[in-house]
Amino acid sequence: MNRGFDRDRFPVDPWALREVSSSTSDVALTETLFAIGNGYLGMRGNNVEGRKAHEHGTFINGLHETFKIHHAEDAYGFAEVGQTIVNVPDSKVMRLYVDDEPFSIGDADVLEYERSLNFREGVLRRTVLWQTPSGKLVQIVTSRMVSFSDRHLAVMTMNVTVLNADAALVISSQLINRQDGHDSDADGVHPDAAARDPRRAERIADRVFRPGEYWQEGSRSVLSYRTNNSRMSIAVATDHTIETENEYDVERFVEPDISKDVYAVRARQGASVNLTKTVSYHTSRSTPTRELIDRCARTLDRTAAEGVAAQFDKQRLYLADFWERSDAEIVGRDDLQQAVRWNLFQVAQAAARADGLGIAAKGVTGSGYSGHYFWDTEIYVIPFLAYTNPMWARNALRQRQYLLPAARKRAQTLSEGGALFPWRTINGEEASAYYAAGTAQYHINADITYALAKYVRATGDLDFLASGAIDIAVETARMWATLGFWRSNGEDKFEIHGVTGPDEYTTVVNNNLFTNVMARFNLRYAAQIVAELTETRPAAAASMRERLALADGEVVEWERAAAAMFIPYSDALAVHPQDEHFLEREVWDLANTPAVQRPLMLHFHPLVIYRFQVLKQADVVLALFLQGDEFSLQEKTSDFDYYDPLTTSDSTLSNVVQSIIAAEIGDERLAMEYFIHTLFVDLSDLHGNTADGVHIASAGGVWNALVSGFGGMRDHDGLLSFDPRLPEEWPELRFRLTWQGSRILVTITATSLVARMLEGDESVTFSVRGDVHVVGPEAEVRVALSGQGPVRRANTHRAPHRREDGSVMTPSLPTGPIMLPTGLEDTR
Question: From which residue to which does any coiled coil extend (predicted)?
């Protein structure tokens, strides 16, 4: 059930990830699992001594370098400038020497060890008892915190006690620009073997950071830089405080790429040395480094005035509020509970203080996917935020609003109206060099509008629309109106050709079902909110019409196109084809595909994959969830049964929706199987690339699988509803929701659903399996449940795949490399 998670090494703790024995064999994984961040600043879980690391990672959301994309064969409109997140100066290093012997966790004689990431405190701690080669016992306790209350602040401590003797003790606290290779002790082992893996970040050979002002004054050190191409600026400053009864000396050193504060302590037996390091990072797209240094100074001065203890107190209070709003509880299953909270905590670390920046695919835990923002955020993360921490959702949507000018420019380049958001980006420009599986995913427009609608429905925040966010819906609808075209064959149909859906194993197709269904939603919603804003905020609506030159005829055309949208359906097979020609392709024999050839994209040319019915991720099934009121239960069952065996789940996004729809149609076994996979995808490194950072969308998907899958929550047409599917082995599921400003606690058991108002002055109306209920302030409503919906037993004998003409398809594998007889090799 725990999918290979080592419970001897990582014991069950519902409120922390604890490691009770160290290993250097999987530092790449544990650096990610123990990463800390706040959405703006992130630090990988590198050991404090700064040695034997996979990637010495410190990242700031949105801080990136650009580079020219070199296409082997260029064409008009291809992405021209790549973007990649860069490693900012590393402040984590605090190296320890006892009698001039360096401490290194991989080489030392460690008698006791524990590392923990506490979800309520937001602090990474490590406790080690080290026996030196001369037999001295040294206790080392370190902590690391990236502040939620002050997004520019990190606090680190090191407490060292020699327990059984006196000793010469040295702590070298450093600030290092690792990005440009100026670390004399650099020993990162970031492998290049997977250089072709598109999930990995680009590597820049040239210098990234051009040094600016740098200095030391007293216990404060400052480094500053401007990036070479993107011209972004950064400043970082550190302060140190030492507390000890022992005598000590201090030496300080600074150069453009490194600063050191070295404390030489004459340590007496049992007399502790406590070093506290406070760090501030400030960045900007245009601000001079001199001003950023001043901002760093103000952050550190304020921290010193308040005291470090106050920062840890504020961290606990911040997280107490987060868990009060966001916790989801599987009662009686602490093993699953620990994994649930780890995942939800990762979303907080990626989103809490993004503050108008995007939420990257890996958050700020690693350089995977180059730090880019994808549509994953809008579909898997923002719904969780909208229902629990709506301000975080609003901030993430504001980032899309800021990027509208670039999206308009991109639409013009692709000969479309309105705006076309990029598939992957940091600065708003398309960064996907492979357009077929990237830029062609026009569905991102509808995904962003879907997230906007989710947020507005959950919060009732029409002011957000009135202040300019409505432009997102209007401009994306305009793009669909020009991308699609009318076809008359007895009746008028609106069709969309030449696009790629979420499934990247099937590209540039006509009438992708997901795209058409979501485009229909986008068009309808844009027309709806234009009318709603006109009625409720006439001044804002008038301003929008003038700002966007919106004519009434455009809105009428959106409604007409939505009503006539072509939705593929096969009467012969009683399923929705993923696209117009999907059912004509041969079927890939996934059951007999060797595990070493997964994921397929790393072992087969795209043209091989594109010829088959094989999915990287659930495409049609995702549409069944997002637009569930447009499909009957029978249609969902038939579509799920058809596409599930074709889905590789090579994408971490797939198992979420497969779990949700499996739960809805009554297949508890598959729902649980896919949920557990999602729950442990990073903790057990099930996709083999957690080393590059947490899969944030999958982490957000854990909440969706619990609340929308097993909790059966939907909000179609702005109506809150529940149709629970509690697993038989779970006694109780509890989760919190914020709806229209009121917070409710939902508790589901085998026989009842209880909704209790936790906060708010307005009653909340909801339905349970069609019956309407109202819960008022400081009250609760108990609804009896008769079972947990439809129940399907495991379907182990699937029907053979058939073509629409009734002929049977035999699943097959692509032919492997042809081995020529010796001496007959083609030498041309």
Answer: none
